[in-house]
Amino acid sequence: MAKTWDSVAIMADQVNSGKASALANVEKSLEIIAKKNPEFQAVITTVEKRAKKRAKEIDDKVKSGEKVGKLAGVPFIAKDNFLVFGAETTAGSNMLKGFNAPYQSTAVERLEAEGAICVAKSNLDAFGHGGSTKNSDFFVTKNPHDKTRVAGGSSGGSAAAVALEMAPFALGTDTGGSVRQPASFCGVVGYKPSYGLVSRSGVVAMASSTDTIGALAGSVSDTALVMDVMAGVDELDGTTIKRDDRSYADLGTSLKGKKIGVVKEHFDEGLDPAVEKTLRASIEKLEASGATVEEVSLPSLPLALAVYYIIVPAELSSNLSRHDGQRYNYSSDKAKDLAESYTLSRTTGFGDEAKRRIMMGTHVLSSGYYEAYYKKAQTVRTKLINEFKDIFIKYDFLVGPVSPTTAFKIDENEDPVQMYLQDIMTVAASLVGVPSISLPCGEADGLPVGMQLMADQKKDRELLSAAAAYEGAE
Amino acid sequence: MSKLTREQVLKLAKLSQLTLTEEEIERLGKELSSILGYVERLNDVDVSSLKPTYQVSGLNNVMREDVVKEQQATPDVLLAGAPKTSERYIKVGRMI
Fold it and tell me: pTM for the whole thing?
């Protein structure tokens, strides 16, 4: 069967040379969404009017002899926590229903400057809180490989949309695995960059010390091109780091001479045997491609999830305090004064998971508990960072699973701690700030399995190159 | 294992500006206690020689020129998102 979309580079080339039209691309994308979305619910809303308008402008520019850019006329889908003109930005929550972007996120602005066109906004766990989209206040996204299963989360809508070929690529956010885990569940590539590589301006904040902007696509080269366009310092986000002068899409293709560490602790407990089997075969493939593969140990890794579930609720409880019913469209109309308006708006606007995390965060930051929980967690974080630093002196990359299981059934993991355990393999890279990619590496019991590769901070091109080499190896 | 009391749950709800139903007080008490139980594994970790890490960008005091630039987010556009406005202000309910 022919692929629905060419590579992003070829698509842009075709539009720039007038052989294909941006409008036809947008219409094709919208058609696929209209056909498949009722069944899988990957998308919350389309941005049809604005997308078509922009497509026509791009086609006109090409006709008048202008070059449009590296992503000319390429449609994409943004997770619904990115501010995008032409549609609401809900972050999957009732709290932001009806909220229209007052400005656009830097990530989307940069993609648009190169000619890309946002066609739709995808579903997520409300405010990014979850690993299944079951915490979306609207609906659950179904896994494209099995409708009785989740697509993962929180960027589950983006992952499913790419797997369903609704668009050639999608944007996600990754705070503790929210790009990588759904990519793994849906069988697509998902990239979380080094902390600070892409501006978060105009993206609904979750946990400021680990939030990153990532991309999901069908191939490593498409992912790398999208990341390259978005990367770099933005004065609207003071946490952005200097990018490389060289393109992140300028990828090497060989693993020869590279040293890869297999993280022992990832295989210690709870890893599904079928997932392990697929993963071990993929690790052999890395070796066959010329890399040296050795087992390594990160002794503090089993503590990462506990660290994460203190730091992240603490930061998000603070970030979500701005949702007070006075500024972002939603407000309870039953309040008789300001104090009651705060409480009633938050009580009716936030879903269960947001409330749980806000209260958890409030607890670990509160007087009498701050030292024992928050400060302790931030100090164990230092221990984890030191272990990663030491390992990256000797090894170029680390490899392990993305998730302990394949996509689970929609009615599974109802208990909050069970659900949090979903993130056990992915949170460490977030706490340490290193880049990490989820690569499709085969199947277990007929469902996609993702392999996680990590590199040292700011080694994004090296990591994408290794991923491309793996993808290209037979 | 740390178990949150009903009073603690109510205090957290108050600090979080949330009101809880009886069912939520009961359920959230159990759920939060169970999460706190999970994170207790950090108690025995010796980190006495280490300092906490609050951010991982490696950046410090990022400065920029203090100049006014044209932005997409004009005051009018920002105010349009608020539930109630009056002239160029966000309008809120009675305070006292």
Answer: 0.97
